[in-house]
Amino acid sequence: MDVILLQLLNGLDKGGAYALIALGLTLVFGTLGIVNFAHGVLFMLGAFCAVTFNKILQLGIEKPVADTGFGFTPPPEVMPYVKIWFGETWGDFIISSSVPLSILLTVPFMLLAGIVIERGLIRFFYKRTHAAQILVTFGLAIVLQEIVKHYYGANPIPQTAPDGFSGSVNIGAFLGISDTLVYPWWRLVYFGFAIIVISAVFAFLQFTTYGMVVRAGMNDRETVGLLGINIERRFTVVFGIAAVVAGLAGAMYTPTLPPDYRMGMDFLVLSFVVVVVGGMGSLSGAVLSGFLLGIMQSFTAVSSYALLVFPNASEEVRQGAFFKLLDFVDTWILFPGIDQIIIYLVAVFILLTLPRGLMGRAGVMED
Asked: CB–CB of 274/43 below 8 Å?
């Protein structure tokens, strides 16, 4: 039971990231009809917003260090400005909380980046073929990736979770089912954050006048335009919102996955698979398939993960029926690395049985 619950939590954590990226990607396709192959890089830019914000908080005044007496002078220590301004205790708290506080930088930067990309490039390809859209956005993704590589280097840059959420929580004891079921705090926080952002996007589209006009424009752009509404301007804002969603997903994911310049491309293919499985243009389908594929990917690694969950299990326990079953599954049913390809296998199966995806609409990309 512990293993099953842990894998479910792992799947929800991964699914939250997949769902957030796919939600923004579907939002762009549903409103603008653009197949945006640069969307994964927006996820990466959000992650580096968190890195940049952390570096900003580390800026300070250099304090010279006394000579050691052996002819070697240590490098000067840096007193961050936040510690000078807010004191040692609050300064340390702000620096350790750089990831969630980076939202203050991520939201305006990603909104501006999305609007600039849409106005400066995407709007010229509204009436072009999907092949042309893919080529130009993929080229944009490569350019942005190389810019990040130039300024931040090629190596991953680890980010830490806030001190209060850096450890693990005993979920089993909280639920009253086990004393050994522990899970990282930050992964739970990320799952809750994903639910909040997804709910906010759906509430915006469903309950605000602005969102209702956008949904109407998604179904019939010409009629909305004839009513005197500047739907193009609203679609620009929607592209910015989609960029913000992807950026927030990347920024908050940095304690789990240290960002590097390649992470955008890594998530690009996954996000498109999630969108296609959910159904092109379906926001609900994108969210559903994101969590579904995340859980599927997690459970295919159950055998290897179980051995990590119980590293101190006795030899008698390891020879028991549970571990023998896991070993049988790992040896005869699965094969190494299947958790990396299960998403694509599920996608093939679903598209063979449901060509439009789980919740796809008729007529979308069927011309």
From this structure: no
